[in-house]
Amino acid sequence: MKHSKLILPIFCILLFSSCQSDPEISFESSSTEEFRPLYHFTPESGWMNDPNGLIYLDGEYHLFYQHYPDSTVWGPMHWGHAVSTDLVNWESLPIALYPDSLGYIFSGSAVFDTENTSGLGTAENPPMVAIFTYHNAEEANTTSETFQSQAIAFSLDKGRTWEKYEGNPVLPNPGIRDFRDPKVSQITNTDGSKSWVMTLAVLDQINFYSSPDLKNWTLLSEFGKKIGAHGGVWECPDLLPFKSPSGEDKWVLLVSINPGGPQNGSATQYFIGDFINGEFTPDDTMIRWLDYGPDNYAGVTWSNLPSDQNRTLFIGWMSNWLYANVVPTKAWRSAMTIPRELSLFDIDGTLLLKSAPAKEMEKLRFEEFKVSKETSSLPSEAVEITAGVTDNSFLITISNELGEKLIISKENGLVSIDRRNAGKSDFNRDFAAMHSAPMSWEAKDIRIFLDASSIELFVNDGELAMTSVLFPTSPWKTVGISENLKSLKIFNLKK
Ligand code: FRU
């Protein structure tokens, strides 16, 4: 790494050669609220954690989420709701599910019951069915172990209004404290018949259940007691079919774990293997992480995508339970990651999961700046930076007028994001840290998504991803780059 060739920004000099007519770019901040992201989804106010019930229907991507509208810290969970037709602009809708006498509404998923197997709709108007966990908080404060159970609700008007099924819970608790986060999908069996399969986090393992009608569930198998990372409780699983690069059918099982991630606290691991006759068998015992940054947790994928999209779309909660409740935002807490497309790739015979920015993110680009010098001003808090990497190493320093710095690098096989001096960090003693990830193969290009309070780094279009939240006390102003980065471009992003 040729650090000496990096000219660190001192003054904010305009050095862009812009494709647009006006080369004089002045810094503009379109967010009026401190730390409010400009293009990541945030709730208008109140608390948010996990994405829930991701489903596509009739041109709309639905994003439900863990939400407590009455406070900016975690509390009685509701399902908040937003929709988007392009994955970039989100419209907030009224709360979808409220807690009731059976408990808080914890994480879960949504399916479109096309054939009305549940009988909760009609053949002409099949229901959207949400499968979620009831968490009975009062009971949780006792010695009872049965306070989490699975339940369903349905909507006959595209997710706008919901009715809870009167026979809830559909999967009562067998006596296990951590019994939650059902992700349901429809699987075609070898004889061509279809069944609903539920993937459930049970303490620190995954249980698979099957159902003909979303109401009656039978245990198929258990997975994971002796494999994978076990530093904390397992949460928010998701079972996904993929084709490997050589055309083989493979299954990927996402499992969030808290704590016990590759950095401090929460993270999402995954397993690659086969799912045959209701049983998941991993190909190997390797521990794999979806994102090596500290702030991508509880992510899951969209159901019911039209087959012509031919992709798996993911979104994660951009925070970490270590400090989610104390980050220095005011009216709201937490944002989602950008939507990402997951696929399998192969490095020297090892299959790994790639998470690339969803192609819709390119719609946000509204001005492109070709950077000709080693130090440039940033046109906004919302930018995408792209570059080619020439010798498997890079160093990028993003700074503001107060001398705060965010450093992104690859050196000696480690990709790092250093937020030790990147703004506010006194709210948690673990926050100011440098996070690194091993990347033994060659880095060829990078994409960086910067927003008012986050960075998402994608190396080789997501062969390695790192997500980190940050709270600079003054907006980022300049970017300094090492000489071995080529064709550097900065896109001003705008919704
Ligand atoms: C994951 C999680 C889930 C749970 C939800 C509660 O972040 O702990 O396991 O359902 O959050 O809000």
Automatic annotation (TrEMBL):
InterPro entries: ConA-like_dom_sf, Glyco_hydro_32, Glyco_hydro_32_AS, Glyco_hydro_32_C, Glyco_hydro_32_N, Glyco_hydro_beta-prop_sf. GO terms for biological process: sucrose catabolic process. Residues 1-21 form the signal peptide. Keywords: Glycosidase, Hydrolase, Signal. SMART domains: Glyco_32. It holds the Pfam family Glyco_hydro_32N. Residues 40-352 form the Glycosyl hydrolase family 32 N-terminal domain. One of its GO terms (cellular component) is cytoplasm. Transmembrane segments: none annotated. Residues 377-484 form the Glycosyl hydrolase family 32 C-terminal domain. One of its GO terms (molecular function) is sucrose alpha-glucosidase activity. Belongs to the glycosyl hydrolase 32 family. PANTHER family: EXOINULINASE INUD (AFU_ORTHOLOGUE AFUA_5G00480). This is Fructan beta-fructosidase.
